[in-house]
Amino acid sequence: ILKKTAPEGEQPPVFFMIGSQRSGSNWLRTILDQREDLAGPHPPHMMRDFMPIVDKFGNLENSENMEILVDHLCTFVERNQVPWTDKHGEKISFCRHLIYRHAKEACSRLKGNRHTQKDVNGPVFLEKEFYILSIFDAIMNYYAKVNSKRLWMCKSMGMSKYHDFLLEFYGEERLRYIYLV
Hints:
Radius of gyration: 16 Å
Protein name: Protein-tyrosine sulfotransferase
Organism: Helicotheca tamesis
InterPro entries: P-loop_NTPase (IPR027417)
């Protein structure tokens, strides 16, 4: 599955590792993180920890509210119990502007897809899960890039409950699961 990556220029697959406790998932994550092309940081659990409070950020169509959410999520990951580091072992400090821009572009793409697929007249709104997911994606891509890797993997069992959102966000051609039992 890891050998079937997208050619240069195409969107690469994204990997989500699903495993029960004591299944060896963290061990496997650290091994896969050693690959030259795959970044596998300690799981950030952004969806788990921010979905219950996302409404406190207000309307995420509002740029200021979205920027605040980006800052909170970046800070959350920067203060992760297991530091995220770059290829030189330095703690990562996320560029909020790049994360915000990537997330806004992803949300615009999703809205465009929905507008086309559903032939909707008027504005298209996204569920709050997509705003967090777009920031999550931007953070994971940023992490991979600062580590000179093209692919990333998230080992967070909790992401499985967002499968429908992941599927719409990434599409069948990109979304990959690694199951450990």
